[in-house]
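LOG
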Amino acid sequence: MLVLDAAETRSALPWDGLVKALGDMFAKGCVMPVRHHHEVEVPGEADATLLLMPAWQPGAYIGVKMVSVFPGNQTRGLPAIHGSYLLSSGKTGELLAIVDGGELTARRTAAASALAARYLARPDARSMLMVGTGRLSANVIEAHASVRPIREVAVWGRDPRKAEATARELDLKGVSVSVATDLETAAREADIISCATLSSEPLICGDWLKPGAHLDLIGAFKPTMRESDDRAVARASLFVDTRDGALKEGGDIVQPLRAGVITEASIRADLFELARGTHPGRTAPDEITLFKSVGAALEDLAGAVLAFEASGGRS
């Protein structure tokens, strides 16, 4: 049995290969039951979340990820996300690999947004605003830079010191990195805005989005959370990773749906339709696009299989 730690998982999942693996998996599909989502009480602080996400390709691979999200870890200097991925043979059920779940989650999440950006962000997008300073932030920036000609990146966080730390962590050739001190100003200038936070209140206002902007919403994975306001959702062409997930769990979609700002028909396409070519994605240079992801077990399976096979494993 293969065991991949965080560093080994990262090495086995280069952006170009991972984005392609996700695109192929969305195009081909797999069996993906509804994930288990449980609230876990943590005395004296915000509730944690336990996620169990199974998926399989009949006759090939079976996988399940167990992930915990502890918001209170931010005050301890610890990652909010911990987890492991168990990859088994789809022929015999034999356990083939244990993959670091935190690293797999961070990279496949970023790669899914980069895959969406291939269809939704302008081909000439050069400037990016990263809202959030957690583990995902550097991954998201690197992933987008692998699919679009990003030359300027601004990082914004509630804690400027964390934003500075994230900016220092980045080492992208030919890319200028700065810390944004005014969120509105930075958002109005950006070609791509990515948000990866645990915010329960809107951070990005629709009136800030310039023509042709692409808004990538990664955080706010519960119906009670959101990173954009109703104006942003109303102005933009809406896309999601999976319809079932976004309509059930993504607060940026669920809340405006309940308020009557949009309808289910407002969602133009999901990543299945984009990857299969049944929807073209962006259709005009000045179109404002919005992509909401909540994560899907398919993405984990694609990443785990890639990491396993890249490390010499065989089913």
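LOG (cont.) second protein
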Amino acid sequence: MLLNALRRVGVFALTVFVASLVVFFLLGVLPGDPARAQLGLQASEEQVQALREQLGVDRPLPVRYLEWITGFFTGDMGVSYASRSPVGPQVLDALQVTLLLVLGGIGVAVLIALPLGILAAVRHHRPDGTLFSGLSQLGISIPNFLAGLLLIAVFSVALGWLPSGGWQPPVAGVDFLRHIALPALALGLVNGAILARYTRAAVLEVMREDFMRTARAKGLKPGAALVRHGLRNALVPVVTVTSIEFANLIIGAVVIETVFVIPGLGSTLIRAVANRDLIMIQSIVMCVVILVLLVNLLVDLLRPVIDPRLRIAS
């Protein structure tokens, strides 16, 4: 098991390295000139060349890559082309906001998916089970931004219970919870519906297994057999899908941050793209890539703990 964990960590490190090459060189070969974008069309070639030298974009791509990736992993992500301020503090501040939003969305998704998926599976032959499945299908069809706008219309505009936008840090206590409630709900509703479908399928598959029939034959009621023997087996594919949904949550957070005016990675990335701030863009993209890969690594390490059979297979 230890050898398998070390192998997965090695694959993670290699993937991060390859991803850094792809991110940097793809952005580096894009058409356009950051210096010209900053100075405008009226600037002279001498002014543009001076700014290129100041920003360091006149140097060869391999040299710029080594400088960037070394600084990235030592905490020095460079200086923003647009604001001329250090990129690291800006990215880390935005990353904290996005992580809180994504964790809130995951919490909402799990609270929706597990009960809804289990009930839809257990009662799949009954009308209420069909209703639960229909609700999850309806949730999948609603985009994140539409869910956010509907929540704002109901809870902010019509009822006035919660703010329609803005952000407060966690130290604000109740104000933080009031500001994160609607964005986390909008982010988690759609992903919770998707996860509920996978939960239903996993529980249904486990309920048809021979060991479940044996448990019921020994006198356990269907509900008790599912709780004692079935849910742990159904949890492995659900946890795997949750790690995949984590990437979708980050992508959805870009839209939700725009709808609710939240200063996270999404809104920061949009501003960087508008300003052609390549150093900011590649640092944000790299942070997201590492975050997704890290979650996948943790899930890979967690699966043998949940299902001991995987330890033998690995």
